[in-house]
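Design job #97: recover the sequence.
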């Protein structure tokens, strides 16, 4: 009789042990998912800071470029105002989506500013303008690379927060889809570096 009771208790102990192992495994799996989402969210933030650094670099070059062009093209006041307003909007943007819209407006205004130089051969030949042109071209390349990397990270993050079981944790963490940084010219422009040539 004792042997039968001991056998039943041993079976219950085994079942309890299996349940504990399953609960621990599920907990570790859930913790891994939770931490993975946090890491992906941080990757999006970190990569956006890289984009933001390059946008800031471009923004810092603008006053020098505008002043250089102003010396030759005094009657082009409208474009100088547009560039100044676009720069102010970019500096004042708070969210990623506001910064993306402001960066696209800045890119458009900057393109129009650089197009003015075509009408002034002596401006194109100036050392200061050439140096600024080279710096701007390098910055545009950096922006394109940072934009591409950011969009890849965003794609991974957005996919993760929509797939089960990540979606459960994403709701718990109140994560929402991140915005892509698509330039105003469309998705094709994400892959192409803006051309600055004179």
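Job complete. Output follows.
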């Amino acid at each position: 009789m004792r042997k039968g009771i001991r056998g039943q208790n041993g079976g219950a102990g085994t079942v309890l042990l299996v349940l504990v192992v399953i609960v621990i495994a599920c907990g570790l799996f859930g913790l891994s998912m939770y931490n993975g989402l946090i890491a992906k969210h941080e990757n999006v933030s970190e990569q956006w800071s890289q984009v933001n650094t390059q946008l800031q670099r471009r923004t810092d070059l603008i006053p020098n470029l505008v002043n250089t062009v102003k010396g030759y093209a005094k009657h082009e006041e409208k474009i100088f105002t547009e560039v100044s307003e676009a720069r102010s909007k970019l500096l004042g943007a708070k969210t990623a989506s506001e910064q993306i819209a402001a960066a696209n407006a800045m890119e458009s205004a900057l393109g129009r500013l650089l197009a003015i130089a075509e009408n002034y051969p002596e401006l194109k030949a100036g050392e200061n303008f050439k140096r600024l042109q080279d710096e701007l071209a390098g910055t545009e390349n950096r922006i394109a690379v940072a934009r591409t990397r950011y969009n890849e990270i965003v794609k991974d993050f957005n996919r993760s927060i929509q797939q089960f079981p990540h979606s459960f944790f994403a709701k718990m963490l109140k994560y929402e889809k991140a915005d892509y940084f698509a330039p105003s010219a469309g998705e094709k422009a994400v892959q192409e570096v803006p051309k600055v040539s004179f």
